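This week, study the protein below.
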Amino acid sequence: MRQVLSGMSLLLILVLCDCGNSQEESSQTTEIDTLVIEVNNSIGIEYGDSCYVFGEIITIRDNSHGSILILDRIKSQVAEYDSTGTFSFVAARAGSGPGELLRPIDFDLNDHDEVMILDMMKGQILSYSDDGEFLEIAEVYSDMPPLKINIGTDQYLLSLNIGQNVNENGALSLYASLDLRHFGREHQQNLWSSSFAMDPSAPEAMYYSSVLALVYDLDSQGNIYLANTAFDKFHLLSYDANCALRWEIEQSVDPMEKTPHELANEQELVRSLAQRFGGSINHEFSPPAYREVIQDIDVDSNDRIWVRNGLQNRPVFDVYTASGELLGTVLVRIPEEQGSTDWEFEIDHSISCFSINPEDYPRVLQCGTVNLLI
């Protein structure tokens, strides 16, 4: 089923009034119901107690008890903090022994709040109980492990994979694919794929063709919500657990250029991605000049889809039902001195975000539970 955005829905994407912004924005007269939420807590300090000083935060998740788990790439560990931001324990730590981590690059929680950590160097997904006890090696990869994982109910595993092909002339190329399957089963279904040349002189191209090429999330029923990177259209798709298209919403928009600050930060973000996966980028390069229309997608614990509007200067989300009906718009008001676009969000039982500004010290902001919002 294809849906075309109504004029009101398009306004929700394009012209959400933002106090203090340009005269053009403030002159809009269309009334839009927008819920504004505030930051109510912060986890992380620049110096001091090592339980609260982070090296590099790359993933955060929250569980059904209201706790937040934080993956620190530099420390190679996942630590848990309660709903007030108080340190609880380290769920998994660095080391080469059983249940220890060498190069963790992503993690997620299953429907029992068990922690599933993807370790690139071990080529494994390791499973831990909700109190941090090592349970088992859930997956072993003989070739390249996934770059990212999402886990749904009934052990659905949605993974972003990368591999290589050799054509009949011996030329090497790379591919990225988004695949869905159950843990312990070999059969998987493909949702998205992209092939691209391997260019050692421009390794950043690999990240723009894989990790940065799309955003997506998985709901409790195994439905997937996906958007390819696009600069001139809003295009949101939903697939069921059999990878059949359920619905899509599409609308053309006017491209918006990134600021010099955004371009500089994006260079550092891509360099950080390379380090995360064991590579490096030492040369200057030019990121895409225009903002992504859909910056991110999250599915909350009530299976509502939060679509972050990449054309806004503040974190703005259009929230949809699982059937694609627009419920409303949410603005997260982050204190001005902490920036506005340099935050990556996790929305499940609660709303949290962490800083991806390379000039900032790593920390997590907490914004309350999703049940209070819509």
In short: DSSP finds four helices and 26 strands in the chain.
